[in-house]
Amino acid sequence: MQTTDYDFISWNALVYEWAPKAIGAVLILFVAWIIGKAVKWALAKVINRIPGAAKATASDNPKHSIGASLGDVAFWLILLFGVVAALGVLNLGQVVTPLNSMLNLVASFVPSVLGAVLIFFIGFVVATLAKRVVEAALQAANADRWLEKSGLTKATGSTGVSSAIGTLVFVLILIPITIAALEQLGIESLTIPAVAVLSTVLAAIPHVLAAAIVLAVGWFIGRWVAQLIERVLPATGFDRSISSLTSLTASTSTPAAPNPATAPYAGDVTPATARALGGEVSNPMTPSGIVGKIAMVAIVAFTAVEAAKLLQFGTIAVTLQEILALAGHVIVGGIIITAGVLIGGVLANLINKGTGGADGFASTLVRWATIALATAMGLRFMGIADDIVLLAFGLILGAAAIAAALAFGLGGREAAGKVAQMWADKVTKTPLQ
User: Fold this and answer.
1) Can you tell me where the transmembrane regions are (predicted)?
2) If we measure between CA atoms, which residue out of 11, 18, 167, 149 comes closest to residue 89?
3) 3-state DSSP call for residue 383?
């Protein structure tokens, strides 16, 4: 009987001791489950309303959206805290100790994560608003139309200046915000390299902007100079002089009879009619236009060198300078060769006109001799294998001299024999004193 009473007292004490603990643990788990579900639902709704997250999950299953995934993480974290609290109520210290240390670490890291997320979110919203304000202001000022009128759309593509500047403002605001958010995390192994990269990018942006401004200014100046040359040179008679010079180089020949199949007739389509029909009218490049384009390319190339220096690209700047120097030599050498071809044609044409076309050999010889001399001078100015050019020019002159000597010797063999015989007769008739 005493044993039965003792067992009853033991079980009664056990129930009174553990029943409240078990009920408290169950209540803690239930409350943690409810809070976790509520946080999961609220977090999924809030995050999925963010424009970036909404676009990223627009075509996906809502159950697998970004908000739902983050909500699941929050739910299980809250439930884990509830399990630890329930185990603490049950006095299971050996099980709770490692979980407590892990949760303490997570709990100490959560404020930093929340702070970083909040900083980045606020910065993202501010950057987006600033981008839209800048784009709206530039569109109201017709900046895209001015860019199209300036001709820069041919070089920059279809991207409008308002969109480009708006994106630039967005990046300039978001990079410092991202650096601040990473520093808020306090993870040195992650933040130090990321902050260093972002700081380098942020420091390079002013140089990039300066280089872009230099290139834009060079483009405007080059385009203006090209238009000025195309307007001024024709007024000075430059195009007419080049046309006259090229006509002088043309050899006098009988013009070919017109082909009836291709001859123009009264019903031909005029340029105005072609434009009205949507066709294209050929616009041949004039000599002044060619000079203007060369001047524009040269100005843009010089500004590209300065832009490379602003970007601190020393190797690229040196390479561009060497290319410009070589291009200058090549252009001048090409001008010398072209001038030689023109002068040779003019001289040959003058000889043909003076002799009535009877001495074609002399005109051809003068033409090609002038072209050869100009080619040698042009190639030497270009710096293309000076020794080879001199050797080739010497061989050409030597071959021409030998050919002339052989032609004279073979062609005047009989006359030379008569002269030699006359000299011999004089020697034999002269008495020796």
Assistant:
1) 18-39, 73-93, 105-130, 159-182, 194-221, 290-311, 323-348, 360-382, 388-410
2) 18
3) coil
- Phi, psi for residue 134 in degrees, rounded to 5: -65, -45
Separation between Cα atoms, residue 82 and residue 76, nearest integer Å: 10
DSSP 8-state code for residue 337: H
Whose CA is closest to 158, among 142, 167, 147? 147
The answer to whether 328 and 305 have CB atoms below 8 angstroms apart is no
CB < 8 Å & 24+ apart, contacts of 385-392: none
275, burial (CB in 10 Å: exposed 0-12, middle 13-18, buried 19+): exposed
Q: Parse the chain into domains and list their residue ranges.
A: 2-178, 204-249+287-312, 325-403
Helix (H) or strand (E) holding 278: none
3-state secondary structure 53-97: HHHHCCCCCHHHCHHHHHHHHHHHHHHHHHHHHHHHHCCCHHHHH
By the 8 A CB rule, do 218 and 300 touch?
yes
Lowest mean pLDDT, pick from 97-111, 253-267, 340-354: 253-267
Hey, what amino acid is at 253?
S
Where does residue 306 fall: left (phi above 0), alpha (psi -120 to 50 degrees), or beta otherwise? Answer: alpha
Non-local CB neighbours of 348 within 8 Å, separated by 6+ positions = 251, 363, 364, 366, 367
Residue whose token pair is 């123009």: 264
- For residue 362 the two structure tokens come to 């002399």
Give residue-wise pLDDT tens across range 286-301. 878 888 888 888 888 8
**DSSP class of residue 171?**
H
Q: How far apart are the first and last CA of the chain?
A: 186
- Give the list of residues 6+ apart from residue 77 with CB closer than 8 angstroms, or none: 36, 106
Q: CA torsion sign, 82 to 85 to 89 to 90? A: positive
Q: What confidence tens digit (pLDDT) does each residue in 78-105 have?
A: 888 888 788 777 777 666 677 777 777 7
Cβ proximity of 192 and 263 under 8 Å: no
Helical packing angle, 66-89 and 2-48, nearest 10°: 160
